[in-house]
Amino acid sequence: xxxxxxxxxxxxxxxxxxxxxxxxxxxxxxxxxxxxxxxxxxxxxxxxxxxxxxxxxxxxxxxxxxxxxxxxxxxxxxxxxxxxxxxxxxxxxxxxxxxxxxxxxxxxxxxxxxxxxxxxxxxxxxxxxxxxxxxxxxxxxxxxxxxxxxxxxxxxxxxxxxxxxxxxxxxxxxxxxxxxxxxxxxx
Length: 187
Hints:
By secondary structure, the chain is an alpha+beta fold. 35% of the residues lie in helices and 42% in strands.
């Protein structure tokens, strides 16, 4: 039997979770110095667990690093984190990653992700857009162990490769779909 009170309670809880994730991101906005340190540590962690990522870093035109994304949801969900764009050894700007989702989901987790931008076209796109929606614009391939084993210099044909790592917590399902990356100012 359909229980309207249960549905209202679930939707209310999900709304609180989404609002909390957004407020958490705003309240814990990192300084540029913090983002630089955390991003460098995140890259070193990724390189240790996935040597293919380090190989890609030498060929990438730029690297987007999001060291800590917080995700929560129950039916409706959201995720937020801040990071940086590195071009060569220099920081080229600071960005946030914001995701909204709905569907069969429950839980909370944190994770990091890094996007290796392999073409000048991908770098121009992120510089020229007022927010990059993953799935629109440059082609992004999410790299898991199976994809990583098959990557070589001759198979690198996409604009960007994303690695997700350091997952903690419990959350049913994962996707970067619905993620928007926007430039932010940091001091």
